[in-house]
Predict the 3D structure of the following.
Amino acid sequence: MKPTIEGETNVLSCRFGRGAADGLGKEIGRFIVTTMEIPWNLSKDRIGGTAEKVVHCQTMEIDWVDRELASLPSFDTVLAVGGGQAIDLGKYFAWKTGKRLVSVPTILSVDAFVTPASAIRKNHQVEYVGVASPDPLVIDYDLLRLAPNELNIAGVGDLLSNHTACKDWEIAHAVGKSEFPFKPESIDIGRDILKKIMDHTDDIRQCTDEGLQAIVDGYMRLNTVCLPNGHYRIEEGSEHYLFYELEERLGRPFIHGWIVGLGVYCMSRLQDNHGDEVTDFMKRVGLKYDPQVMEIKRDDLRAALLNLKAFVESRPKLWYTVINEKPIEPTWVDTILAGLVF
Ligand SMILES: [Zn+2]
């Protein structure tokens, strides 16, 4: 199946539907698997075949990843099965070895399965490296529904981020600080992607075929903008930067869509950008964003918000956002904390 979305995407071919992953392991030659324990146990009998090696992703820290790469047997295909890190590890191996990549997301909590670069970590700092495109991308609604609904609903997070990221780009442009040629038409599409997601609120909350596909389509459409532009400015901004700060501070991963949801909660308010409306949507669709579900303590979030400006200013690669533009005062932080559950 050709990608269902018009325009350039990172996806070379698609296999979407109920049972789409069934028997896959017998069709892709000699293969290695990048995965984690839970997704692999849920999917290996459906996928079938015999892997040359199954690599359970422990971390995306580059030292560990490169050691695993050096110990791979010979193979034809990298089969990436799981959530963001398992997919990122598969992309990294496919890029480094030049082999075919087949991606089977088992949750939709992050957009890793449609983006070309692999998110690795160096001393807990994220870096995007390489290019790898799934052939095919396998979206098996039945397999996805084996995961808790809340993890698929988390997929909305990286689309909701358009809300704050588009605004950040406008803020940067208004003060002559945009790192890229400003494209209002890209922002229009970014906002339309989010509107279409909001139109599917009930389907997404219930994880129907249509709801799951709406998330995948949103991601793929995002790429038709971001790949030609050469950057993800409409999808990534201040909401992700709060996540980077927290990840570095606490030294542990999060469910991506949830932590981005928390970022959207905080940064939409710093932007004076319809904070109550996006919060209402997160509640209706079932996207978790409260610190309590991610075991983030009040004092840690307070410290992260108060440090956020210094954090982004110490990282010249991060784009100009509302964090650079507006002061983050202790009284504002207290107001934000008061609206969240710890
Ligand atoms: Zn993201």
